[in-house]
Amino acid sequence: MKEVAYVTAGRLIQHYGDFCLSKGIDFTRIPSVRPHDNTTLFCSAGMQQYKPLFSDPSHIGTVANSQACLRMGDLEEIGDGTHLLHFTMLGLFSFREMTIGNAIDFWLEFLATLGLVPDHVTIHPDRLMEWTPLYRGRVAIIADPECTWSDGSIRGYCTEFYKHGVEIGNIVNPLGTCIDVGFGAERLDMIVNGTPQDDALETLCETVATIVESGYRPGNKEQGYVLRKLLRRIHKMGGTLDHPFFTEEVERQKRLRAKYLRLRDRHAEMSPDWWFDTHGIDLAELGETLDE
Q: Which EC class, in a word (predicted)?
C-alpha cells in the first residue's frame, strides 16, 4: 500500500513540476525534511526557506517547489485518512509579482489538469467582496473568518480550497503584496486517484525513513529524540523496520526497562530528573513499555 501511495504521489509531483515549467516558473524538488531555519525541528512548510524574501521589498520574482514536510503536531491524528505526519507540499511563491487573481487562475487550471474541481473555497469576510470576483463564478464561495495566516511579523489573509469536506490547499496573501500557496501532494493524490492514506503504521514507517534519509540518527535531543519516539511507537504498535536503528532502539528499551524494574523499589522516592541524570532513564519514555 505504501509503495503504491508514494509512487503515484511522485507522479503527481512530477506533473506539477512540469506544469510550473510550462508557465516559465522555476521548480525545485526538495526531498529532505531538514529545516531551513532554527524555528522548527523539521521543515513544516514549503515557504520556510523563503521567509526573508517575503519581507524584502526589493525582491521581485516567482518560484515553485515540492517540499518534504513533517508536522509532529499531527502525530495523534494519523490514521484518520487526512493527516499524514510526513507529506509533500506543492508550493508556489511570488514576491510582489503575481496577484491573488493570478494565483487563483494558476491553481484552478492546474487542478483541472487532474480532473479536479473544488467543491467550494473559503475567503475571509474582510476580502470577500474583493476576491470573490476573481473566481469568476467557477466555484462556490463560503465566508470564513478563520482564513488568516501568520508567521510572526508576516501576516496575510487566505483563501482555502475544499474537496469532499477536506482542505486540499490554500492561497495566502502575505503582507498583502506576496503569494504563498501550499497544496498537499498526497492529499490531492488520495482524492484524485483514490490512493489510501489511512494506515497509521505505514505512515510512521515512511516518516522514519524520511527522517533517516534526511541525515538524522536516534538520540536524546531534538530531531534524534523525535526519531527515537517514532521508532518506539512503531514497536509498540506491533510493527517492524528492517533497519539497524529500529533493532537498536528495541534492545535499548529492553535494557532500560530491566534496569528500572531492578532499581525502582530502592529509589522509589527519586524524581524523574534524577532517573534521567543518574541512569539515563526517561520515565515518560519508559512508561510506554512498562505494561508490555
A: ligase
